[in-house]
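Technical annex, item 7. During the second reporting period the consortium partners agreed on a shared format for inverse folding records so that results from different sites could be compared directly. Each record opens with the tokenized structure and is followed by the designed sequence. A conforming record, contributed by the partner at site C, is shown below for reference.
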């Protein structure tokens, strides 16, 4: 199994980063503006992208100001069953974010492109937390 891993420092309080990863407004501000979410373990988050296409994640774990973990239940076939984890750690400049997208099949064709896209969206998260304005889909390539 493969994993996508990224680490970045966000110059914002850990509370702000956690809020951006758990609330509907926060998620819509950096990944896709068409987001439906409720920050409760066991609930589903729905992220709509192009017409008729969406990703759905089940919230598996919420540890306030520390960890957010999702299980992908609807998306491209290669995503289904993968897990996405955001770990937050205090940093002298704000928050260190350690990101994992785990359980990729070894022969997954979209793995490399997905790693690139996650880097783009994590930059959007960083911008949202630091400036108040992210670059969610469809503006993520600007």
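Designed sequence (site C submission):
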């Amino acid at each position: 199994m493969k994993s996508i891993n990224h680490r970045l420092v966000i110059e914002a309080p850990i509370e702000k980063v956690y809020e951006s990863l758990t609330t509907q407004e926060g998620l819509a501000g950096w990944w896709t503006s068409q987001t439906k979410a409720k920050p409760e373990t066991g609930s589903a988050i729905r992220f709509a992208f192009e017409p008729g296409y969406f990703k759905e994640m089940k919230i598996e774990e919420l540890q306030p100001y520390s960890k957010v973990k999702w299980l992908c239940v609807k998306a491209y076939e290669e995503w289904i069953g993968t897990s996405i984890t955001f770990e937050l750690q205090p940093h002298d400049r704000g928050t260190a974010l350690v990101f994992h997208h785990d359980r990729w099949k070894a022969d997954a064709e979209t793995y490399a492109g997905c790693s690139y896209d996650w880097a783009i969206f994590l930059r959007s998260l960083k911008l949202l937390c630091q400036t108040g304005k992210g670059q969610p889909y469809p503006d993520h390539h600007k």
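Residues 2-131 form a domain with the Alpha-D-Glucose-1,6-Bisphosphate; Chain A, domain 4 fold (CATH 3.30.530.20). The radius of gyration is 14 Å. All partners now use this format for quarterly exchanges.
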